[in-house]
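Dear all,

This email documents one entry for the complex benchmark we are building for the journal club exercise. For each entry we list the sequence lines for every component of the assembly. Then comes the predicted three-dimensional structure of the complex as a token string, followed by one or two observations. Please use this as the template for your own entries, and keep the labels exactly as they appear.
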Amino acid sequence: MDWQAFLFDPNEDWIKYLETVSRRHFYDDNLADAAFNYAFGEMQKGDWAKLNKFQGKSKPSTFLTTVFKNLLRDYDISVNKNKCRPPVWVDKLGDMWKQVYKYLCCRYQNPGQVVEQLSLDSPAADIKQAATQILAKIPRCQEKNQQVSEEALHTSDPQNSGDADEPESSGQQYLWRNMLEALGQLMELDQDTDELADQLAASGRELSQAIRLNEQQMLLLKLHFQDGLSISKAARELNIADHKARKELATALTVIREQLAKLGIEKDSLF
Amino acid sequence: MSRNEQDKKDQIAAQIALGSGHTRAADPCLEDETLAALVDHRLSGKQLQQAQQHIANCSHCYSHWRQVSLAVAPLAAPLPQPQTEADSFWQKLASSWVSWSSGGLAVAAAAILAVNIIPMADPQISIDDVYQQYGQEIAANQRSSAKNFESSIFPSINSWQHWQIEQGKAQGRKKLGLSPSMQPESNQHSCSLGSDCNQAEKDLQALGQWLLISRLQCQSEYSASEGFWLQQKNSAQALANNLSKISPKLSAELKQADANEQSICAISRLMP
């Protein structure tokens, strides 16, 4: 495939498209432009070597986007050398929370800007709440040069600790407390979630082993409950019928409740 | 924000399940082309299962998948092409929303239609022009789905409002050469759009015409684009604001429909 001809086809304007992708990724125009130059330069290297790996399994435009987005991420990481990354409890709450954290604490946007930037992907009210929660829990996150990743050290993410089998109980408690507190605020729950957090932390490894869901169920849970997509849209993302998505979600929720009950984690007021 | 109790409980249960897993899968991250093929729904069988299994357990790849999916959504619709008469429909349609409406609706409607398609360079055109020049083209492939299109959309509207909207839809159908709709029996004051109607009648009849054309539009290939759906979030809200002077109830229902489905397409789908 002639990527040079593809990219510079005057009828398609892919360059403009990639610029838009970059601006959407970075929000800050100067950063976006620098990232575009970096990513485009990387693609161009070796006579479009990265793009020449294309074997026709996807649309060329989707492949191009995937490669380009990957390079934007590389650039993002390189400019955030202090490893500004969300604590694990934010990570586990899903993409919307991670994005909010990134804009608030790595790019130092104010909450209004964050809402403006992300409200196409997730409900604005949820973004606003998430921003409020993050700032409440990590008040110094908007201070430049703040080592926010310090938070992650207090959690038990197996990737951080390098020990997937023996998560530290206090780390788990910290994780669940933060997650449930944040969720409680987001959903305007009036129940105290501390007890549940303790129970979940105490169940440790058993919990992750007990809740066995198939990949579609997991993805539907993420798309619908974490990313805020309607069930129909989530179904479209997975290329499955609406009714199948609804059935899978219902099954998944039943499985989760049953397994929690088996572990003795039953909280009528919450699930 | 208000969520019902069951939603909250489901959300907590879901988050517990998701939070109990690892954020990194044990297997290597997906290659670019595999991820692209997943976005394009071109994987099947074991390959699909493996790819989905990976992104379900790897927050890095999941996030990448979602971001690529969102980025390519507008490409599901054709990219802007060199201008021809046929290609400029959506652009002109966007412009004509502007001419029909005012204030927020104009901006929102422009946003709806402009997102995939387009700078708004054309001079504004009227709804009549839209139907005359482009409607037949759209309707050609939509005749069957446009057949049953007559009933009232909104429970609260009164018979006069209903009749005016139906009038607008009937005018649209006639312009498109579709079979005539059943005219609501009424002894209401009759007027035709643009002649002896007062402003409220004009607005409601125009709404009927727009609902017809938007229904057809939403059934076209553009409805497949996630970006298209996302960009319509504000449109119904703006439409509702525009109609609030005519009927606060109708306006409220429109807002409610928007809250539920967030799309003018969803509103037009409410029509049986």
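Observations: The mean pLDDT of chain B is 60. The radius of gyration of chain B is 22 Å.
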